[in-house]
Amino acid sequence: MATDSSDLTPMTVITGFLGAGKTTFVNYILKEQNEWKIMVLENEFGEVSIDDGLVAESLDSPEDIITMDNGCVCCSVRGDLVRTLGQMAKRRKEFDAILLETTGLADPSAIIYTVQTNTKLSDNYFIDSIVCLADAKHLNQHLDEKKPEGAINEALQQVAFADKILLNKTDLVTKEEKDTLKQRLTKINQFATVIETERSRAPLDKILGLNSFNMESILNFDKNFFENQEESKHHPELVESVGIQFEGELHAQYFNMFMMDLLRERAADMYRTKGLLAFHGQGDVKFVFQGVHEQINFGPAKEPWAAGETKMNKFVFIGKNLNRKELTDSLMECLYKEEEAEA
């Protein structure tokens, strides 16, 4: 269900590989910028402390936080994220945003699930966006890395989950290398906005407070994505974005059965899903959904189908081992057919 987030504090989850520039980015937030008051939560498994002496080794509890000159604070999360955020809730309105740094975490779905389902958290916070900080110089190398059978490529997953990709260190590559890499990122994740940065100086107004992680974001999706889908060779290990659209009204029961079967069998491969739906019997109500693995948020959009507007269903899947034809055929089977209703 959609939640009114106007009174909640936005939380941005930062992922990224060792050496991508996350430490520099967090230091920039804590020490240089003065426009945003941000609470930075640093997980205890970070590759280094945010700064020498900045996050002291003696921090034993979430109450031990360091306040910076610009009003931002840094807190070390040691173990229980729920406890940390619960204890910080009474101070949350002092800050414009919360930044959760998750070094090396490939799959943020557990964090998303916790924030959305734990009432102690969902009454105070909402997921604003998932941001992947990527090193333009070495990202291709990470994406191409061959993993043992059954192991995941963390870099691929981080790109696949992101709403925003901060393509850092762009000054270290040629324009051709950068453009080729951006094309590759778009094929993996058509959702994500790619923001170029040097030395981790990112424009925070393009990252924070935009509610990028929300069900209705599909309404603003580039229509060319759905229209320019190519029938490409099926690669079981490839992580990519697949867009599907077709006109008509869906049979609610058939669609629910399709999604239940899909998520039961393929949840691990489905990193992100989004949908814009028209259901038979629901008048002009426009429905939207968003999913991370098997966790699905579903509900009516704020605006209904307009008078005369074509009811165009749209689906976006980001994941591994996606077969566009199979997905399209299965979804088309969910369309409501008058002749079946009359039979």
End-to-end distance:
34 Å
Could you list the spans in which at least 5 consecutive residues all have pLDDT below 50? 44-63
Major sheet: size, sense and barrel closure? Answer: 8 strands, mixed
Classify the beta-strand content into a percent band: 15-25%
> What is the overall pLDDT average?
82
Q: What is the number of strand segments?
A: 13
Task: Give, in spatial order, the strands making up the sheet with the most strands.
Answer: 3-4-2-5-1-6-7-8
Individual helix count: 11
Nearest-angstrom radius of gyration? 21 Å
Structural class category: alpha/beta
The helix fraction, in percent, is 25-40%
Compressed to H and E, one letter per element, the order equals EHEEEHEHHEHHEHEHEHEEEEHH
Shape: globular
Features:
single chain, 343 residues, alpha/beta, eight-stranded mixed sheet, five-stranded antiparallel sheet, 11 helices
Quick summary:
This protein is of the alpha/beta class and 343 residues long.
